Every structure is written in structure tokens, then in C-alpha cells.
Amino acid sequence: MEFFIQQLLNGLTVGSVYSLVALGLTLVYGILHIPNFAHGALYMMGGYVTLTMMSKSGLPYWLAIVISMIVIGTLGVLLERLVFYPLRDAPPLHDKIAAIGILLFLEAFAQFVWGADYQTMPTPYGKVVNLFGLTLTAQRLLIITSTIAIMVLLYFFLKKTFIGATIIAMSQNREGANLVGININKVAMMTFMISGSLAALAASLASPINLVFPGMGHLVILKAFVIIILGGMGSVPGAIIGGYILGFSESLGATYISNDYKDIIAFVILVIILTIKPTGLFVRRGQS
Amino acid sequence: MLELRNVSVQYGSFTAVQNVNIHVHEGEIVVLLGSNGAGKSTVFRTISGLNKLSKGEIVFKGNRIDRYSPDRIVQLGIVQCAEGRKLFSRMTVYENLLMGAYIHRKEKEKIKQSLNHVYELFPILKEKRNDLAGALSGGQQQMLAIGRALMSRPKLLLLDEPSIGLAPLIVEQMFQIIKQINKEGTTILLAEQNAHAALHIAHKGYVFENGTIAVQGTSQELFANDNVHKAYIGT
User: Fold this and answer.
1) Where found, per UniProt (chain A) (predicted)?
2) N or C: more exposed end of chain A, with fewer CB within 10 A?
């Protein structure tokens, strides 16, 4: 039983990272109505910026994360302005091609600046803690708690503030939002800012456990796509719940099936969901 | 108050609206008549800044607004209740109304007043305030769309086909409410296919045919015009 709960905790950790990435992806999908393939590259850049801030500038972990969130958020805004905004009247295919272009560019950029080597990110939270008889590293505890804190903040922002609600409004009806006086350019920029920051946070939290390298975003973004398909494209609660479902499935699958097949689980789930319920699990009535 | 001068709008090489002149005075109800695809909605979208005009100019209270963005036009006080309603279907009725007051978001007291006013005009919205907008009936959605537009306290309200798809009894009710909104000081520009009911409450009208204005005049003149009568009012 204890072993099982231990696995659940692992699932909670992995699921938290997935949820953060999927949240950014689903928010941008709601606004742009295109899948942002470059989101994984933002995740990767976030890992590198945090690492660089710590190793080169000697900043503490937390400060490095905050700076990384700001930098990657700004990078997201730049992408919106320079790439997606000029394409707003073009066929959707152009956005997709552009997103892949950004992905290739950012990966080549990372390889050029930081090299292709795998790098480790040090963390001040390497200690093992005991919690109700369970052992886990402080880093994992940090991932879980800070993710939940960010989600609560995001929930209040989207649900309880006018500015946050503009994101929801625009994702539900772009012209309707425009016609109540919402500046949709500002909303698009804000959404990319949030999306980029979430990716940077996820990468910075996960990197001490995984590693930092130019391709670190590949598997994460593929799984994030599985999650938002699972949760319904553009759905915020769907991204959160979907992230945790995938996290739990992976950690339980790794234990009880085989660790080698861990990464396949996401795609098996995808195939099953698309066969049984192609609209996603959490699509409410009236949602298109 | 609002003046369209020689306005033309193109979609690609197709000219949807050609050389249209419309004049709306403060306090009036002005109706645009015409069949589907005659260009009424295009005119509305262009006033709201959703479409750009290819020729001419639009002047509101002495300022040219035809290059303004849609949100800036709303801030000036021109608010459109569009065809197809454009509601936020997964938000509640209350949240939709609140978003309507977006440009007044810092004035809590004002929002409360507007909300009460809308609930007075449409009591059903108060009753259903916690329902999702997407779950309302067509008539209720239309009321919500008008209510949301009123939340921004427009000086000029553009109503695109408010009677479309509504039961006859509700249509009549809807026109009474439009008349009341006008009496309370909001100028109204109305696009309608239901010419009979619209001309009853309007001061003057323009009849659209193939993107141009075919006939214009006061409501009495249009009622008396044989062609208009035959084409849009019936017997």
C-alpha cells in the first residue's frame, strides 16, 4: 500500500509538470485556434535560461526561475507579434507551418548557444524528506505545491478578474469579445505571456529531476498535445485533469507494467480516447 | 450623430456595399431594410470596425472613425448587437452581462446600475442569471445579446436582425423593448427583414438592394411607397 501511494506521489509530480505545459498550450489554442507546436521549444528555452541564470550569474534557484518566466513570457509575446499576428488573416495551415519553423529555429539556437550536451540543473531542494511515512525529495514536494499554487492563482485570475476573463471571452467568441470593447491584440499578447511563463516554470521545476538539453521539449510537448486532446482542446480544467491523469497512468504503468513502456502509455491513451470519445473527455455541452 | 459618406466595402474583388450614404441623428431609430445579402450586416460590421471600408468615410460626432479598431469604437459609445448574437456560450448569463460592461470595469456602482436596468427590461435574464448562455432559447439569447450591449451604456446601439428566428409574440415584445430603450435616450440603428414591425417604431429607413440604397425616407414615406410595400411589407 505504501509503495502504491509512493507511486501516486510520483504521478502527482510528473502530472504537475505536464499540467503546467498543457495549460499554456490550451490557453494559446483557445486564442489562436491553432496548436502551437513551438510550445515545447519555449519549455526548453525556459530550462536553459534558468540554468544560465544560476550557473553564469550565480542567482539563487527561485530568482532564476522568476527571471526565466519573464524572459520566456516576453519571448512568447515576441512570437505573437512577429509571427502569429501578421498571419492572423492567413489560412490556419500557415500558423502551423510557422509554429514548426519557430520550433526548429529555437532548437538550433539553443544548440548554437548552449551546445548539444545534456546538462544538470542544481537545486537547493535535493534533500529527502519524510512525509507521513513516505519518502520523497524536497524538489518533488516543491513541484507539487508550487504547481497547485500557480493553478489556484490562474483560476482566480481567469474567473474573478475582468482582465483574466477577457482570455476566456476571446476563446469563446473572438468577435463577441471585440464587440464588448476588448482589445484582442492585448489579450493575445497577454495569453502568450502567461503561456510562455508557465512553460518556463514547468521546465525549471522539472529540470533538476530530468536534464537540460536541446531536445528536452519533444516528448513533453507531444504528451501535452495528448493531454489537451484528452481534456478537450482549449479547456482549462481539461488540461489540468488530463495532465494528472497522464502523470498517474505513467507512474503506475512504469511500476506495474514496465518502465521501458512508460512513454508509450500517453499515446495508447490517445488512441483509446480518439476511438471512444473523439471530442475529448471534458467537453461540456454547447462547446464547439 | 453618425454619418456614412459614400461608403464602399469590398470582400476581395466582390463589392458588398457601394456608395452608401446614411445619416443618423441623435435620438432617432433608423432602420435598414432589405433581403438577405443586401449589405446591411456589412454596413454594421464596417461601422463597428470589423470590416475596413474601401472608399468613403464614417463620421461619429464630428470625428472620422473608419480607421479605428473595434474596441476603440465601443469606447466611443457605438455598440453592436450582432447577428448570430456572438455570446460567450460557456459563460453564465450574469458573466456575459458583466463582460458587456468591460469598458466600465473600474466603475463597480455603474455596473450594478446597468445590471439592474437590464434585469428590469428582461426579467427572464435575472431568473436565468446562473445558466450558461449556450443553454438559453433563441429568444432568451437575443435578449441577452441586447442586454450585454446595453451594459456598455451605448450612445448609439446597432441592432442586427433582433427579430430573426423569434416567435411572433416575442418579436412584438422585442420591438416594444427597442422602442423603450430608444425613449431612454439611446439612438438606435436597426437592420431588419421584418419591415412592418420595424417601420412602426422607426423614424426613418433605408432600403438596401444589392449593396446600394434603393429607397430612403421617413417611415410614413416608406409605408406609402408602393414598391417598398410590395417587396418588404406585403399586404
Assistant:
1) Cell membrane
2) N
